[in-house]
Amino acid sequence: MSDRRDAAVALGRVLREGAWSNIVLRDGSGRARALLMESLRRLPLIDATIERASGRPTGRIDDALLDLLRIATTELDGRGDRPVAIIVDGAVRDAGSMTRRYRGFANAVLRRVAEQPPSNATPGGRDRGIPTWVYRGLGDHLGPDEFDTFWAALDRPAPVGIRSAVPVSGAEPVSGIPSAWLWSGGRPPDGVAIQDPASVAVVNALDVRPGMTVADIAAAPGGKTSHLVELAGPDGLVVAADVHRRRAATGSRRMPGTHWIVTDGRAPALRAAKFDRVLLDAPCSGLGTLRRRPEIRYRIRPEGVDRLAELQNAMLDQALGLLAPGGRLAYSVCTVLPQETSAVVDGRGGKAPKGLPGRPWGDGWLMSPDRGPTDGMFLWVFDAPGTDGGAE
Known about the structure:
With 392 residues, this protein is of the alpha/beta class. It contains 15 helices and 12 strands. The strands form 2 sheets. The chain has an 8-stranded mixed β-sheet, sandwiched between helices. The chain has a 4-stranded antiparallel β-sheet with strand order 2-3-1-4. Helix 12 links the parallel strand 6 (237-242) and strand 7 (259-262). It is elongated and about 75 Å long.
């Protein structure tokens, strides 16, 4: 199949089967992945363009054909110097390969699309599928003008982040986040972990030292776990816990030297007051990863966020009980919603880490792509009585 068809098939799987865009085309071409991601980012605008060009609601267009029209519209919007005819003719052939009756309709619609202003000509987060309740909730914290800047940054493609304790030739260090780098070449070199700088910052905030005991709650797939293992060293102990047996087994295979257990973070099978460091990277809505999974905006629901907030509070209650005297806990979520961030931790006696890109967010700190090269990530640190250091 063509890159266009690959992207269209993947788009259908994301929208109607629940697949994740950052995984569904893992083995596809870079061009197909780019078309898929950009289509998801601008889906409401693209659909409005197709409806104007076709004279019918998108709900009255066959799903497979609609997905192809969406990808082709994305191509036309970003065509640059490419002739319209080449894009339209290629898309019409792809439509005809599905069924011949699609050809004439696809040809007519796409030629009309090419005559319209690009569907990406209208800026602003509210035109890109953001739920009204999300806008209202974040607007209380940011204000409408800052919100539009915030959302626009969250909606751009993400750079490649890598983690390395030593300098990497050709990589750019991320200010304020030791061991975090941005990679702009091809495949990153061997020996580095691909990881967003915000995730590196979360582990850094724990100040793990060699020989420490560490609990990583909700650890799968294990990116932060591997960082904890590096810092604790061979004399340390890192216990990685996750409620999902399959994900824990995958983590154990990837990191055979780590102790993985299957347990519910609301009642973890771990000894209380045992650990020098505890990381709770809690399950969340994931809205802060929008740069990598743009479809999240179409899946998020307020009732789902409320359930997650209940889960996060329950898990944090238990995680705090695992700290040894003088220990430190970090609570993190890759989301930006107040219900899952400040509302969970405010008033519990913790504080925001220092020196990171981002902004204060209640008692914690929010990293975000409008303030630095990171995903949207909330971080809060709690030092148990007897600690000799603050959250640096």
